[in-house]
Design brief:
heterodimer, A: about 325 residues, MetI-like fold, 2 domains, about 0% strand, globular, B: about 325 residues, alpha/beta
């Protein structure tokens, strides 16, 4: 198992290097001269040339690529054209907010999705099955920005149950940044009231973000469970007198979720891109709002850095998913 | 006679697409205590359904079965009857497909013991290691921690035999436990079963389509055709002097003695369209007019046998060649 994990990590290194190169290529193929953009509308050709030399844009393209990779590996993502501050620092400020949101959404989607899928499969063609199918079709069809606004109208404006925007009610107190994860930091300083407030702030955006993933996971789990129920080993277990609950919830489900888990890894990409819209609606101070701002101000350094960071997180999540799969199904690691 | 299992007039039908299939009809057989009873027949004769009825796992589309299955003094056939889990051990057909690939094989057997055998988990583990030793599994202690895919096919069948024995059952039912294995492994597993039966005085119902296996393992045999018993009795008597036309033709035309109807004209009727009267009559060379109308009863015969053919006595051997 340890060998499998190491091999899996080693395999993701070329992918990450490729990603770094890809961001470099993207920065060069996008139309427009970055030096000209940097220098501004009123710059003279001489000023543009000076900036070009200053940023190394006049060197051979291969040399630039090598420099780019070296810089990225040393944690230098350049300075934001918009704010002038190092991009790495700005992203570091905002990344935990997005990760917290996406992880909570992923957790919700996985837990509820697997639960609903199992219930649907055990009630095959029954009323619960139909209900879950309706929810999963709806979950995929509804646009998240629309759902976000509807939830805000209902839960925040109409019923006043949950906060409208942000990560924490500033009137309640300040939370020092330890990890950047509100749920962790509030507990670390022993403020359970703040922890609950952070949870309440997370509820609507996390649910909005989770819904499409939840629908996908429910569908995969449902068909997985239905398939496993037909297996000889389930018949054998019934003949041997396994308990009904154990048979369905453990014996069958563990086989069925091997497919689902792969989906969880793929879903994470969709969650991060979905976070852009959701963060915008809920005014969530994460990477999504940062990316929107970067697009609006043509801050290509910031955009590439966001792409890179999301790519790295995606790769890490997928290694974690592969490891989870090997734990669930021991045959995976032995292959 | 002291019987481990008595099946009386068992009939099972399956619903499907507007049709009703007669899978089993009027099955009567007995497994005497301490002996091995074989059930032999072609694919589709109802062997598997018979096993599922005994194990209480008839498919959902089965209609309410008729008849009785008496085990330890009560009828276990009705859907609401408590199932004899643990008291009847089951050796399934395919060792590759019968163990869940994502759980340790040992844990899967321990779960059966947890539910159906007295004792603590430690006692169960100790007992399972003993059983692994009894079924000659290499390194029994380490076997507890392995997953199914880490065993060979023959070893997996040994695991399943150990699982069948784990709750000290009063009866073992085995569903062609050697067909999925290669020939040398088949011989080893059969040898093991024979040894266990002798050493432990097991009662066993053994389903097969192989007369060779039957001859080497079973004391009694019931020959099934199209969901009915054609002939039953002591294995030696049935194999040496087969009496029902179906049994005679099977044994006459197949030197390797595997059940296949290649040498018999016609085909097994589909279960949804069984012929009236004797179900074998469309293919029987000595069929009489009454065979088309009357269901032949299972009549006592010489040598402790029973034969479902009223014309067997008059039949000439050469008429079947």
């Amino acid at each position: 198992m340890a060998l499998y994990i190491l091999r899996r990590i080693a395999l993701s290194i070329p992918a990450l290097l490729g990603l770094i190169l890809l961001t470099f290529v993207l920065s060069r193929v996008v139309p427009g001269d970055p030096a000209a953009t940097l220098a501004g509308d009123s710059a003279t050709p001489a000023q543009i040339a000076q900036i070009r030399a200053q940023y190394g844009l006049d060197r051979p393209i291969l040399e630039q690529a090598v420099i780019h990779v070296r810089q990225v590996l040393s944690g230098d993502l350049g300075n934001s054209i918009f704010s002038g501050r190092p991009v790495a620092e700005e992203i570091w400020q905002r990344l935990p907010a997005t990760l917290e949101l996406t992880f909570v959404a992923l957790f919700l989607a996985t837990l509820l999705g697997i639960g609903l899928g199992l219930v649907a499969a055990l009630d095959h063609n029954g009323p619960l099955d139909h209900l879950v199918r309706l929810v999963s079709v709806g979950g995929l069809a509804i646009a998240s920005f629309w759902l976000a606004i509807m939830l805000q109208l209902q839960f925040s404006m109409e019923w006043n149950l949950l906060p409208l925007r942000g990560r924490l009610d500033v009137a309640l107190g300040q939370v020092p940044r330890l990890t950047g994860f509100m749920l962790v930091d509030t507990l670390a300083i022993g403020r359970f009231d703040l922890f609950l407030d952070a949870l309440r702030h997370l509820a609507l955006p996390a649910f909005t973000l989770a819904l499409p993933g939840l629908a996908t996971i429910a569908r995969f789990t449902r068909s997985g469970v239905l398939e496993v129920l037909q297996k000889d080993y389930v018949l054998y277990a019934r003949a041997a007198g396994y308990g009904r609950f154990r048979l369905a919830a453990i014996y069958v489900l563990r086989n069925a979720v091997t497919v689902t888990v792969t989906q969880v890894g793929l879903l994470f990409g969709a969650l991060v891109s979905g976070a852009v819209a959701v963060e915008a609606v809920f005014d969530w101070p994460g990477l999504g709002t940062y990316a929107v701002q970067a697009i609006l101000s043509a801050d290509y350094k910031a955009l590439l850095a966001v792409t890179l960071v999301i790519g790295v997180v995606y790769a890490v999540v997928n290694v974690a998913v592969d490891v989870a799969q090997a734990i669930i199904d021991p045959r995976v690691a032995d292959q | 006679m002291d019987a481990a299992l008595v099946i009386e007039d068992l009939a099972v039908q399956l619903r499907g697409r507007g049709e009703v299939a007669d899978i089993l009809d009027g099955i009567t057989l007995t497994v005497p205590r301490g002996s091995v009873t074989g059930v032999v027949g072609e694919s589709g004769c109802g062997k598997s359904t018979l096993l599922r009825a005994i194990l209480g796992i008839l498919p959902g589309r089965a209609t309410t079965p008729r008849g009785r299955i008496l085990f330890e003094g009560r009828d276990i056939l009705p859907a609401r009857a408590a199932k004899p889990h643990g008291r009847i051990g089951f050796v399934p057909q395919d060792p590759y497909l019968s163990l869940n690939p994502v759980f340790r094989a040992g844990d899967q057997i321990l779960e059966i013991m947890r539910r159906h055998a007295p004792g603590t988990r430690a006692e169960h583990r100790a007992k399972l290691v003993e059983l692994f030793r009894a079924v000659q599994l290499p390194d029994p202690e380490a076997a507890l921690r392995k997953y199914p895919h880490q065993f060979s096919g023959g070893q997996r069948q040994r695991l399943l035999i150990a699982a069948a024995l784990c709750c000290d059952p009063a009866l073992i039912v085995a569903d062609e436990p050697t067909t999925a294995l290669d020939v040398t492994t088949q011989r080893e597993v059969l040898g093991l079963l024979r040894e266990l039966v002798r050493a432990r005085g097991l009662s066993m119902l053994f389903v097969t389509h192989d007369f060779g296996v039957l001859a080497s393992l079973c004391d009694e045999v019931s020959v099934l055709y199209a969901g009915r018993v054609a002939e039953s009795g002591p294995t030696r008597a049935v194999l040496d002097t087969p009496t029902h036309p179906y049994t005679r033709m099977l044994l006459a035309c197949h030197p390797d003695r595997a059940v296949e109807l290649l040498g018999i004209p016609g085909a097994v009727p589909p279960a949804t369209a069984q012929p009236a009267g004797c179900r074998f009559h469309p293919r029987c060379p000595v069929a009489q007019p009454d065979c088309r109308q009357d269901v032949p009863p299972l009549l006592p015969w010489s040598g402790g046998r029973a034969v479902a053919c009223p014309h067997a006595a008059r039949m000439e051997a050469h008429a079947l060649a």
